[in-house]
Amino acid sequence: MVYAYECDKCGAGFTVRATVAEKTRGLDLTCPKCGEKDVTQDLRGVGMAFGGPGTGGAPPFSGCGPGTGAGCC
Question: CATH number of the domain that 11 lies in?
């Protein structure tokens, strides 16, 4: 998963890639711009991260058309 955060001091936004288990245990977060430890998670920025060893990277985007599911386009 990719988690988005915003620094409470300088307002810089940044993302962190972590497993759900790592997130549950607690992440040691520091703003990459100013070094502040007080950050707030941006829940609009939560997403899935594809890739890693042996996965071949992100799945291809299928676009719109037959078989893409309800709500496409």
Answer: 2.20.28
